[in-house]
Each structure stands twice: as C-alpha cells, then as structure tokens.
Amino acid sequence: MGFFHAALVIMMKDLRAELRTKEAINASFAFALVILLLFSFAFDPEADTTKALSGGLLWIVFAFAGTLVLNRSFARELPNDCLDALVAAPISGAALFLGKALANFVLVMAMELVSLPVFGIFYNVHWANQLGELLMVLALGTWALTVIGTIFSALTVNIRLREVMLPMLTYPILVPALMAAMQLTMQLVSGNAIGPETVTWLKMLIGFDVAYTAVSLFLVETVLVG
Amino acid sequence: MNAVAVEGVWKFYGDYPALRDVQLQAEAGSSLALIGRNGAGKTTLLRAIAGFSSPGKGKILIMGKEPRDTDTRRLVGFIGHGISVYDELSAFENLALFGRLYGLPDPRAAAMHWLERTGLERVHDGLVREFSRGMRQRLAVARAFLHNPSVLLLDEPFTALDDRAIAVLQTLLRDARAEGKTIIMSTHQLREALELSSHVALLSRGQVAFHGPCTAEMIADPGLVYARYGEG
Q1: pLDDT category, B165, cuts 50, 70, 90?
Q2: Is B145 inside a domain boundary?
Q3: Separation between Cα atoms, residue A54 and residue A33, nearest integer Å
Q4: Which residue of B has its CA nearest to A92?
Q5: In-domain check, residue B8
Q6: A114 CB near a chain B CB, below 8 Å?
Q7: Range of the domain at B210
Q8: How many CB atoms are located within 10 Å of the residue B154 CB?
Q9: Quick check: is B22 in a domain?
C-alpha cells in the first residue's frame, strides 16, 4: 500500500470514528464558543485596542480548543489496544502519523471556521476583508498546531496524565508559530493585506510547518516502537 | 527453516530484565506453546517478536527478516490482550479497514469472508460497541486471520473466550496448522494449547527453562513441564 493511500485510510478512519462519537469536536466547539463569548464581555468591541488584540485572542482560543481534539488523537487507539493493530500493520509510522495529523487538521479547521463568524459578531471585526489570505494563515497555523499536537499525542499516549502533559509540551514549542499566526491574523482582520513588513512572519510560519513536519515524520517510528 | 528465531534477546523495563538472554526457534509449520507463570515474560517476548517493542540486546528474525520490516509485518497475525478493533466502527468496517491497511486486493470481500468464517455475517453492519464479549473476541480472531498470515502470534488467545469463540479459534488454528502456518501461542490453558502444539517452551523469570517437542506424556499430564522444569 502506498504511503499517501495508507495516510488517507487512517485519516478517513479517524474522521469516521470522530463523527460517530463527536467526543472531541463537540467539546472543542463548545470550548471555543464559550471562551469567545466570555472574552467579549471583558473587552469593549468598539475600542481599537480590542481589534488590535483580536488576532492574538483568536489564536489563544484556537490553540486551547484545538488541544481538546489533539488529546483524543492517539488516546482514541487505547481502548481495545487498537494501537497495537495499527503498529502491526504493514504501513510506515510516518503514514500513520500523517493520516492522524490530517484528520486532526480537518477537525481543528472545522472548529476554527465555525468560530470565525462568532468572533466577527462578538468583537465587531470584519474578518472577511482579506478572506483568501486569512484562510491561508489559518491553514498554516492550524497545520503547525496539529503536527506538534499529533506527535506529542503519540508520545504521551501511554502516560496517565496525558491531558495535562500534552499542552505543557505543545505550547512552548508552538510559540514561534503562534506568534507568526497572531501577527498575520491581526494584520488581516484589520483589513490589511500581508505586506513587506509582515511577510517575514509568513515565511517563519511556513518554515516552522516544513521543519516540524519533516522532524515528526522522521521521529514517529521511534516514538511508537522505541 | 526457522520461521521465527529469537537470538540472545534481553528486554529491560528500567533496570529490570523482563527477558534474559532468550534463545528460541520455531520452525516453519510448527506450533509452539509458550507457557510460564504470570510475569515470566511471555507477553513481553511475543510483543518483541511482533515488533511492538525493540529488544534491549539480541536479535529477532521472522522468516529471516527484522520484525519491523514492512514485508515481515504482512506475514504476521497477532492477537493480544485487547481485541484491537474499534468500538465505534461496524464489524465489516473494522475488517475492511485492516484489509486496506494490509493491501489486500479486495478488502471488502476478505472482510465478508472472515465474518462468515467467524459466524458474524448477520451482524456485519452492527457497531462493535453493541456486540457481546464473545462476538468481539470472534471479530478479533477474524482481524488476526484476515490477511492470511503465515506466522500467528497469539497472546493467551483462549482467555475470556466463550464456548463458541473457543470452538471457532480451535478450528481456525487446526486449519492453520494443516496449511503449514507457524503458530506461537502463550497460554495458561495448557491442555487446549498442548493439543494444538508440536513444541513447548517454558519461560521462567525471563529465561527459557525448557524448549522441546510436545510429547504425548505432556498432553496426558499438562502440569508435567512445570513439575520437571519450572519453579514447582
């Protein structure tokens, strides 16, 4: 079986399982909406400073709510020892990782796309002015989140306190990607396109994605089998 | 030719050696009963042979290749302590999923074939979470046999099976032996295992205390190996 076909099979399996149980996605949606609602009471939606903070606020919500999806990624394999069956199958650990990362990406992106209009209403932000570039930044930032989250989900799957350990390990490594995504999102929701002064953040985000995807694909076999 | 060769394998959990210089061979077409008290290292050894963990020292070869080799994994079927099927998928979806992962030419046909052989065809679209324990165990057996493996690694396969699942598994194992497949099975159900085995190995504190052919004397008195070579 080809590498990408195996990854696709794993992705479809994870999405089908999640859509049947809705364990992670419901929790993630609810968490994102509640946090956006609560913060909207803390800030005056007319103030310019609120709009300036909104990119950062949005990514904090995405990172926290996304962790709820990522926590389930490999934990889903624990009941019935399903991870053994996947590790025993003649597919590479990298294909298994990629399939899971793609499924997580779809689920986290879905949560983000539902949250965006809510964010626009509560914070009085015209987020769709630079829609194409905003979606690109969302995709790049979400891929960073899912790659790091998925590899650490594999690493912490057999730890009893994995729900605590995953964010503790994930967020420090994500800082550069989150900084870049926040800066770019702030620029875009303010109605400005990515220009020469912000393109460095975009390059940094792309570089982060490429580097950590390559490292994760390389290391995942060791993480799974030791 | 050895289907499985374990050569001087050590496995450590922290500083504790769960396996100590284990030497074991299983010829192609043979059936090896791996027996021993709880904590003797049976599961650790089977998991290392299956490629789920790397030995600290030593070498394991399946058909002359490393267990983690992709081609080797196609040859191995494993039943562990868990059933290794997804509760939120149907029986058919589970088997079709693993059929795809093993690269079977027609995963759906293979899934239906094994559902029929394990008596689950009438509940093929039922979610596994709605199955009884016996049905779940039969599905686990179907998953392990699905890709027609030539080496079967079974970790206490008769434990917690109902009568029907035991009958299904015994029939499949007899057929597997007749087809020349290699079977390594850890078990506490000595009589059932020895009746199906050509060889027996006794593990004691991570070491092989006995390894040899399974005799009529052993089948008549399943406790004999423990009495002669075990810790009493």
Answers
A1: confident
A2: yes
A3: 15
A4: B70
A5: no
A6: no
A7: 30-52+66-229
A8: 23
A9: no
> Which residues on chain A are in Cβ contact (under 8 Å) with B53?
225-226
Mind listing the pLDDT tens digit for each residue in A145-161? 999 999 999 999 888 88
Q: Among the listed ranges A63-67, A103-107, B11-15, B223-227, which one has the minimum average pLDDT value? A: B223-227
* B95 to chain A: closest CA residue: A85
**For residue B42, which of B151, B156, B144, B131 has the smallest C-alpha distance?**
B156
Q: Where is average pLDDT lowest: A77-81, A94-98, A222-226, B178-182?
A: A222-226
**What pLDDT does B232 receive?**
53
Q: Which of B50, B83, B93 sits opposite A88 (nearest CB)?
A: B50
What is the crossing angle of helices B133-145 and B163-178, to 10°?
10
The 10s digit of each residue's pLDDT in A13-52 is: 999 999 999 989 999 999 999 999 998 888 776 777 777 7
Residue B113 included in any domain: yes
CA dihedral B129, B135, B136, B140 (to 10 degrees): -150
Let me know: does B61 contact B46? Beta carbons within 8 Å. Answer: no
* Interface membership of A8 toward B (CB under 8 Å): no
For B53, other C-beta atoms within 10 Å of its C-beta total: 16
B158 backbone dihedrals φ, ψ, rounded to 5° = -90, -10
Q: How many Cβ atoms from other residues are within 10 Å of residue B112's Cβ?
A: 17
| Cβ(A153)–Cβ(A74) below 8 Å | yes
Total length of chain B: 232
CATH number of residue B112's parent domain: 3.40.50.300
